[in-house]
User: What shape does this take?
Amino acid sequence: MPISQRTQVGIVGAGPAGLVLSHLLYLQGIDSVVVENRSRQYVEERVRAGVLEQGTVDLLTAMGVGERMKTEGLVHYGIELRFEGRSHRIDFQDLTGGKGITIYAQAEVLKDLNNARVATGGQVFFEVENVSVQDYDGAKPKIRYEKDGNACELTCDFIAGCDGFHGICRPSIPDGVLTEYVREYPFGWLGILADAAPSSEELIYTYHDRGFALLSMRTPQISRLYLQCDPEEDIDLWSDEKIWQELQTRLASNGWTLTEGPILQKGITGMRSFVVEPMQYGNLFLAGDSAHIVPPTGAKGLNLAVADVQVLARALTRFYATGSRCLLNKYSATCLRRVWKVQRFSWWMTSMLHRFPNESPFDHRRQLAELDYVTSSRAAALTLAENYVGLPME
Ligand code: APR
Ligand code: PHB
Assistant: This one.
């Protein structure tokens, strides 16, 4: 006989989507239980995103989990686009009326959220196994899982599928319900974490004949850098020396030097755009990477996950306060309006900044013209800036 438990909202996944949702619901007096198949340490040590939109920063602050972000996060009011050896700053503060971004690792956001959940009696169960979701098209959805060898059954009113692209919630939805939209890119990113002081105050996106490169950071002592590579590359064939040499070549600019240092972590990730529609089925709601994936060029993955659960938390709050499902019924349509605009921006940044195999000379010249336009027209720069700092929530 499984150990039975009851809550209002069952949440699968303790990544940004799951933990932000759980705490947002707590702040509204709504009970939730989060089940996560990895350990807390594993989730908090994964090297993931690092750029927080203004809206994400404001939300985390309003939730009471922004204190360390405020002291340790790096606030930036612009980025640099570099091509043909020249550098051009996109001034967010000027173009967006004062908005910026904050560099603060996703892992740190999760630490802050987990600490807040523990401090407020939140129920986040790590290292669960064999998670499945049932009866979500009825009035008593269930999440079944095993914890410490014990079979458990969580009965709830709603299930939030915050279990990422490889989770079980999206695949649990019956065939024929969902439509998938996919674009695979013919390249990936080789990313490194290095014990080297960042060689720029702000992020540098570079378009180079040999391919894209990005200079980012985590702290004043730790650099985060990426270079475009074949998605099937074997990371073991990339020595630290070879990585730094390629980064030096692609990021080179007159009078500027790239500081090197010991590489602490390196990896290659593929790149795709993915959206599933709708993002809900019965009382199951998909949020974050379980519903969509963006290429990292626009730094949107974490921010889009947070936006989804803001919409879901607002809808659940309305339901529990009034019994009305009107916002719940509009959840998918509301989220997808933002999702597709963010997909467009991420695709545009990726298409503008990467070298495509088999591209024509025309395409190459067109890309250079795009970069020239964005760095010489205020109107063009504004479109980049307003998307990068984050479009307003509906
Ligand atoms: N059961 C329980 N938990 C699961 C299962 C499962 N079957 N499958 C996956 N999970 C967990 C993962 O271990 C992960 O901790 O769900 C969580 C999903 O978190 P993310 O993948 O981070 O997705 P999301 O919360 O939507 O945040 C998106 O995270 O991965 C980055 O680049 C992504 O920045 C983006 C952000
Ligand atoms: C990062 O710092 O990890 C980062 C920054 C900007 C991006 C992608 C990743 O576009």
About this structure: The mean pLDDT is 97. The pocket of P-hydroxybenzoic acid (ligand 2) is lined by residues 49-51, 203, 214, 216, 224, 296-297, 299 (CB under 6 Å). The chain has two domains: 3-76+104-181+272-348, 185-271+357-389. The first strand starts at residue 3 and ends at 6.
